[in-house]
TrEMBL record:
Histones H3 and H4 chaperone involved in the nucleosome formation and heterochromatin silencing. Required for the deposition of H3K56ac-carrying H3-H4 complex onto newly-replicated DNA. Plays a role in the transcriptional regulation of the cell-cycle dependent histone genes by creating a repressive structure at the core histone gene promoter. It comes from Polytolypa hystricis (strain UAMH7299). Belongs to the RTT106 family. Pfam families: Rttp106-like_middle (PF08512). Residues 367-460 are annotated as: Disordered. This is Histone chaperone RTT106/FACT complex subunit SPT16-like middle domain-containing protein. Residues 261-356 form the Histone chaperone RTT106/FACT complex subunit SPT16-like middle domain.
Length: 460
């Protein structure tokens, strides 16, 4: 009889109380004849929750602003032609779960605790790939989601500046990277971000209701377990994590001493965020809009506003849909200590460095004539002699300019001393005093002292 138990009903009925659900599973295992009773109790619990949710919605509609239902995706297809309705319909369809996580803290597109679900592939699902979706734990409605086949990038990144170690899983669907425009007729799903702690997967369960802690190894955490489960579902891409081989910031984590920081703090306009330099591209988050620059979309990278402590990083992108259109996005106020690592990353992946391009130098430095075009504007990439970076060239040119100024400096133009050869402060003060108001090179101090000495001799 235990084989006929509908465990999905049990999970939904007792999902808010993990301890009680475990007791129900134990009771069913010891007394299988009571399984149908527990199923009825679980169904009744779900009905009560639905009634409460409906009544709450009605009160809001009568006594206050109505609750808005979030759009699952932006369908740019022609509604008369039906759009891509199968993609959207599959989100709400009942499907077997591969795994789900209770009380998942989502940061995007909503800041809310929801039930994270990953469904298995079915013939009815779009492209037979299943879905990743978020379900309201009270009303049981699907808040948002994305088909597995529509996911383009999955990133697992540490959360910076937190006392407790945490990780963000970032799901970036097609045309949702903030860089690539969506073609006409495409359904665009929103990026999804949820946060997991650094610890054993206590709230993760398999589709059968089995706790992930029972099937996972003792060393597995939320991070490693979800990476493994998502990689099993993702056939066209994999979960990408930061690596020391790509980039590590020399700025230590102030909140967690001893840990390496894989992020760089930067501003896009007035919005503060974090840059991550990954094996597949450059990511900027965690505020809307998210940006992910894959290597195929990057036209060039350049450094601007190079100061003693900070510099700006400009990323120029060119879309495959419109090759003639180049868009440049600037990230400002990056700590100067991060430059060597960023520059090594750019050279490693052979990204074009356009810091000293002719157009940029003419615009920024107002250089004209042969000097701007012939002497300094020839190198537009990182293929110069010795592979010297453009920021290093800028520093070298500044040093050369300072050396030229020192060579042109004539110490005799400020006047000469009294010939004593002393460099003490007293001689300098006497020299300055003696030259006040004169301007003809006479030593007035010596003249005054000499006249006083003559007067003394005459008196004697």
């Amino acid at each position: 009889m235990s084989g006929t138990v509908d465990y999905s009903v049990i999970d939904r009925g007792f999902e808010d109380n993990l301890r009680l659900r475990k007791l129900v599973y134990s009771a069913i295992a010891s007394t299988p004849q009571h399984a149908s009773l527990f199923e009825d109790i679980a169904r009744y619990t779900c009905e009560i929750r639905n009634r409460v949710a409906v009544s709450t919605t009605q009160v809001s509609a009568d006594g206050g602003p109505a609750q808005k239902k979030r759009k699952l995706a932006k369908d740019t297809a022609d509604p008369a032609a039906g759009g891509n309705s199968p993609l959207l319909a599959g989100l709400n369809a009942d499907a077997e779960l591969q795994f789900y996580t209770q009380d998942t803290s989502f940061a995007m597109p909503q800041r809310k605790k929801l039930l994270l679900e990953v469904t298995r592939s079915t013939e009815a699902s779009a492209a037979g790939s299943g879905y990743l979706r978020a379900r309201n734990q009270v009303s049981k409605e699907i808040e948002f989601g994305v088909p597995i086949s529509e996911i383009q990038h999955v990133l697992c990144l540490p959360v910076p500046e937190k006392t407790q170690r945490q990780f963000n899983f970032c799901i970036i669907p097609k045309y949702a990277d903030g860089v690539t425009p969506a073609p006409a007729g495409a359904t665009v799903f929103e990026p999804i971000i949820w946060t997991v702690p650094d610890g054993p997967p206590r709230t993760v369960f398999l589709g059968s209701g089995t706790s992930a802690m029972e099937s996972a190894s003792l060393a597995e955490t939320y991070e490693s377990y979800m990476q493994r489960m998502l990689n099993e579902r993702l056939k066209h891409t994999k979960v990408i994590c930061p690596s020391e081989k790509e980039f590590v910031s020399p700025v230590p984590e102030a909140h967690r001493k001893g840990e390496k920081a894989y992020h760089v703090k930067a501003f896009r306009g007035s919005k503060e965020g974090f840059l991550f330099f990954l094996s597949t591209g450059i990511f900027f988050g965690y505020k809307k809009p998210l940006l992910f620059f894959s290597f195929d979309d990057i036209e060039s990278i350049s450094y601007t506003s190079v100061l003693q402590r900070t510099f700006n990083l400009n990323v120029a992108t060119r879309s495959a849909a419109d090759p003639d259109k180049v868009e440049e996005i600037e990230f400002s106020m990056i700590d100067q200590s991060n430059h060597p690592g960023i520059d090594a990353y750019i050279q490693k992946h052979q990204l074009q460095d356009a810091s000293l391009a002719v157009a940029r130098r003419a615009k920024k430095l107002n250089i004209n004539g042969a000097k701007g075009g012939d002497e300094e504007g020839g190198n537009t990439g990182n293929g110069g002699e010795g592979e010297e970076s453009e920021l290093q060239k800028a520093h070298r040119e500044l040093e050369d300019q300072e050396e030229e100024e020192e060579e042109d400096y004539d110490p005799g133009s400020d006047g000469e001393s009294d010939g004593s050869g002393s460099s003490s402060e007293e001689d300098s003060d006497a020299y300055e005093y003696g030259n006040q108001g004169g301007g003809d090179g006479r030593n007035l101090v010596q003249e005054e002292l000499g006249s006083e000495a003559e007067d003394v001799d005459i008196d004697e």
